Amino acid sequence: MSDGYIALYGLGGIGVRYAAAVAIAPNVAVTNAHNANIVAEDLILGRSRDYDLLFFRTDRRAVPVAHPKVGQRVIAYGQYGKKRRKEAAGVIRDVEMYLPSRCPECSRQRTIAYDAEAGRGFSGGPVVDAVSGEVLGITAFFDDGAGDNGGRRMYAYDIDLVIEEMHRLLDDHGS
């Protein structure tokens, strides 16, 4: 996973922002679209209308992926500062959680729900199987108090959805 992990940082919005990305195909990485202001514009390949996903060029090697399962132990990766990668251990609670759509014409947000103490800086970062290291999803949102025992519930786009959206966007645009 280390070969495909990408730290994102820069000025955006109200100050310095940190986020993460991961290479999911040859020369293609993914992060959240709300991280667009910390990705060089000339690297951007496509932005999803329906999902908070942004695809961009990279020279990093693509990571192996797998299908998430309820009860699976995971590690979410995020970024704090230019050089410090953060990790948050968790457990998948649901593999078909639907959240409201981003716009009236957009698809509902199909996500994986997992409980972990992750948050700022984890946007766009990979969620991986704690044993194999295979990428299961891309972190998108969190909700304090929604997790077990009132903890933080994290939401990630299933890697299959991410790859489908990548093909839909990039194949349609000839990238």
Describe the structure.
- This protein is mostly beta strands and 175 residues long.
- The protein folds into two domains: 5-62 and 163-172; 73-159, Thrombin, subunit H (Beta Barrel), CATH 2.40.10.10.
- It has one helix at residues 159-172; strands at 5-12, 15-25, 28-31, 44-47, 54-57, 73-80, 84-99, 109-116, 126-129, 135-144, 152-158.
- It has a six-stranded antiparallel barrel. A five-stranded antiparallel sheet has the order 1-2-3-5-4, with helices on one face.
- Strand 9 (126-129) and strand 10 form a beta hairpin.
Question: What is the structure about, briefly put?
Answer:
The chain has 175 residues and is mainly beta. The protein contains one helix and eleven strands, in the order E-E-E-E-E-E-E-E-E-E-E-H.
